[in-house]
Amino acid sequence: MNKSTWWLAPFIILGLLLGLGVVFLVTRPPRGELIELLPAPTQSPIIVHISGAVGKNGLYSLPRGSRVNDAILAAGGFTDNADTAALNLAQILEDGAKVVVPDLVSQDAPENGTRLVNPVQGLVNINTATIDQLDSLPEIGPKTAQNIIDYRNANGPFVRIEDIQAVPDIGPMTYDKIKELITTGTSP
Questions:
Q1: Residue-level pLDDT at 184
Q2: 175: which DSSP letter?
Q3: Which residues, at least 6 apart from 174, have a Cβ–Cβ distance to it below 8 Å?
Q4: The most confident of 39-43, 113-117, 124-128, by mean pLDDT
Q5: What CATH code is assigned to 41-104?
Q6: CATH code of the region 123-188
Q7: DSSP string over 99-121
Q8: What is the C-alpha to C-alpha distance for residues 134 and 104, in angstroms, rounded to an integer?
Q9: Rounded to whole angstroms, what are the CA distances from 181 to 57, 97, 102?
Q10: Which of 39, 41, 61 has its CA nearest to residue 49?
Q11: Which residues contact 177 (CB under 8 A, 6 or more apart)?
Q12: Could you check whether 41-104 and 123-188 share the same CATH topology?
């Protein structure tokens, strides 16, 4: 080598060292533990019971945030004798809810010869219902309806429908007759 190229030698050595360092960093095994990425969580569906004047009664699995209208459509829609005005089709459903679609019933001449007294139109929200709405439930008269309102005013809203059994004059037998007809109106 001549004297004019000696000054290039440190740069060449430095380039080789940098190249070897990059190769070392790229080829060495990784340190630490692997991080496993899980898929984004999906919400579990809700299960609702649909009965009454619909195409097919039964249990249906619906996405969270579904409304009463979605449940009716899942059950095949309304039958010809469904009382569509009795339901709030925009109400959001909660897991375990029951949607009862009432029939249009002629009060003048029932087909089976019996007379209906206080027919219940959909679910009664025991946290917001009036005396008349509560009185429409089987085994609940005006006095017991007033007891329910007095109880919720004194103790706050019902958390579960089973809590209505704490109201005077409502025992397990009465509860069994109304439990499919009432709701607290709360969502999870």
A1: 87
A2: H
A3: 139, 140, 144
A4: 124-128
A5: 3.10.20
A6: 1.10.150.320
A7: EEEPBP--SSS-TTS----S---
A8: 20
A9: 16, 10, 11
A10: 61
A11: 138, 139
A12: no
